[in-house]
Amino acid sequence: MERPLDPTPEAARPEGRAQARIGESEKITINLGPIDLGHVDLLVAEGVYANRSDFIRTAIRNQIERHAEVTRQSLARRSVELGLRRIARADLEAALAEGRRLDIRVLGLASIAHDVTPDLARAAIASLEVLGSLQASPPVRAALADRLR
């Protein structure tokens, strides 16, 4: 079942702290020049940040906050759900029973339940766009490969 759009950043919602931790396992690699890296290390050495990762997470959050209005408008225009979207077997079966196929768009984490079969996922999900992270079994992920954007 699709949830209504809530443009409030997840970390600002009361339940957001616990849910936000789910997505923190994603790793990214960035390249910094020696001067930028030196500035980061100096701020860490001065105790402004606990470590490089703390600096980078803070910088990213500050930029997200700085561009919150652009994000809000884009989410509304694109009908994207913000935060955690759990896709349960019952949700997919209900959609099929109603003769519907789901177009799912998530900014955050989309999690497809372990009991969802590849055939059920293909039958019930017309498209899946995830800006963030997708948790799904390898067979379900493979079954939806042509629908992922």
TrEMBL record:
It comes from the Bacteria. GO terms for biological process: regulation of DNA-templated transcription. SUPFAM superfamilies: Ribbon-helix-helix (SSF47598). PANTHER family: BLL4998 PROTEIN. This is CopG family transcriptional regulator.
